[in-house]
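Page 42, continued from yesterday. The earlier attempt failed because a stray header line got pasted into the input along with the sequence. Redoing it now with the clean sequence only.
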Amino acid sequence: MKKSVAILLSLFSFYFAQKALPCTAFLLKSDNCILVGNNYDWISKEGCLLINKRNIFKIAIGIDSSRAASWVSKYGSITFNQYGKEFPQGGMNEKGLVVVTLVLSESIYPKPGNYSKNIDEAQWIQYQIDNYSSIQEVIDHIDQTGIQPHALNLHYYMADKSGNSAVVEFINGKVVISNGNNFPYKVITNNSYQWSKDYYEKAYHYKPEMPRSSLNRFSRAVELTSEYNSALPVEKGVEYCFSTLADVPIKGWTVWSIVYDITHMRVYWKPSSNKKIKFIDFSSFGYGQETPIKSFDINSKLEGKVDDQFAAYSYDENRRIVLKTYKKLDIQFNGNDFDQFCLYQMEPGKYRKTDMFKSTCDLTIVIKGIDNGYGTAFIGIMNNAKNFRKLNPYRGAEVPVKNNEARWVVYNIPRGEYASGYFYDANGNDKADMILGFIPKEPVGFSNNARGPFIKPSFKKAKFVLKDTEQTLEMQLKKK
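This time it went through. Structure tokens are written below.
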């Protein structure tokens, strides 16, 4: 029994972090080019590159029509898509604006009611590269359209052809932009930029055995980007980008490594499944609305330039990609919502109101009594007794400790019965440290502050019911 408890606790960080979607992004500037490197880390590798058209009318999905943002795409773009068309993980438009998304579990978005128009947190990327040619334009219009989140706590990394770069975050319900003098290190991972910067300047020492840690990856990427020789030719700069990405992976979870050459308008990428680098030139494609939408399998085994391998993108292909991706997320659609979602992606100008989030709750989890430091609280929410026994979360997060507490807002959880657990990784080594091999050295706990004879309680003792639009769950850290 003692051994099984130790094994169970050691899985806390692994399983909870698995659902936290870590990633890395950075900028390299040289005399010859401006490059953005991005590792996309996730449990599903399914996806495609899409050629997006200009002059297409669009309206945000899943939001009341009176508050849904609408626009006409001003620029064409090339994007990496895993959740279907219009919901990219990152991309670049024909003016050289790059926007990529990374998870930030501590994100708390401003209330949608503060804005007359809103958009989904994933579609926010497409909105920016459809409408703006530079970071300054994005910043100038940032307060015009809010985010009505559907599932994910995100922040965004941006760069443009001038060499400008920025991070857009949502901290405690406010928009926070790191740019210019407030953005000395052109790197971001999965903590807020200011928290990562503080850690690097005050507490960092390299730990090669800890590549998973967001703060460790941030700091290592800062070191590597600062060592970049700006006199390198373009091809060597691209190689350096890929070698830097290879130094900060999440073993087993980094599915794509991507390099955007903004100066020469090229995109390179390497899927983890075959390690063959592929690239495309923006000039090879047409972006007028009269040309068909084209796509290419991200995980193709081809190598080198693949511009001529793009094929027409169909509803069936879009549906296949979306279905595979959402199965990994364990997200259930109501009625015909899934088909409505896929139809919308092919015709984003036709408003489609879905009921995906009609019976959901925004849950705020607060763990109190944690000593301040750079440790991480791994938090998971289990949606049935079986998953609770295995500590296999429906949603999971890595949350920093500030003001002696860890706070996580989980958006749009279906109402029903759940149980939550947490593990506080005080020393940041990504594992549950034990005394004598079975006694937890670092705090663990469960909803209702429940305890069982071998630490973990039964689902019945730990469960709570979500029944309101917004709820708060508080847990008090147990030192022993």
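Notes: The first strand starts at residue 23 and ends at 29.
Reminder to self: strip header lines before submitting.
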